[in-house]
Amino acid sequence: MVNINTTFEGEKNKSDNPFVTNNPTSWCPGCGNFSILDSINQTLHELDYKPQDVLMVSGIGQAAKLPHYIRAHGLNTLHGRAIPAAMGAQAANDTFKLFITSGDGDTYGEGGNHFMHNIRRNLDLVHIVHDNQVYGLTKGQGSPTTAMGQKTRLQFDGMRHDPLNPVALAISLGCGFVARSFSGDPKHLKEMIKAAMAYKGYALIDVMQPCVTFNHVNTFKWYKDRAFYIPETHDPTDKVRAFELAQTFGDAGIPMGILYREEKSTFMQRIPHIDRPLIAYPRKPSDIDGLIDQMV
Q: Cα–Cα distance between 66 and 25 in angstroms, integer?
């Protein structure tokens, strides 16, 4: 069980936070997305980032609307396609602090192929997955993380597929940073975001959150009663133990914290002939005149 702490120790004045906007959201009252957005805003402000230093990339979904509600560079892409868009952005200009923010369906369903291969490539970015175990934007059908047998607005007689275990999958594929948190514990979530930002490589944070409209099983109380902090004695470099811990979910408890961490070279470090971001190479419009002439 988590002792919920809804205050931020030593937080800066939110009224002075340049990342905070007054843009109206389309999220339902009580949605966990609000806490995730607030945790990102506060973390960036406390670490003295400026809006021009940050790029938020997303796919499609309620969680993927987050770039609309934060003052930073934003790129809202196609369903499940946030990762390849982020890859292009990083190759072009790696001076931004790069985030992907999307839901469990967008990341592990439509974007599952890109998710797996990005672990292989190891782009240097923070991927925050809003995992509410349901598709929220498209009105409540089961997602890749919905439990077997759970009834939804589409699966009237219950889900007939085994749920995906994203953190176990990430560890098994060799992801260098795998963590889990809960939108109802913003202090812990901020700690995970800071740790992920400090990691050089692909950092995955699977954030458990309620969908108050379409998921009446995995509620705020359901998560709160089951979440527990990973003991300090856990060695996040022990891959076997991390994989074992990642199997724990549901009534057996939900471990929160850094499950696995491994230092490894990043995608850009593995391509020595790209010795600088693409924007740093000298370019002249006349360079492509010959190619254009061939096509017209």
A: 9
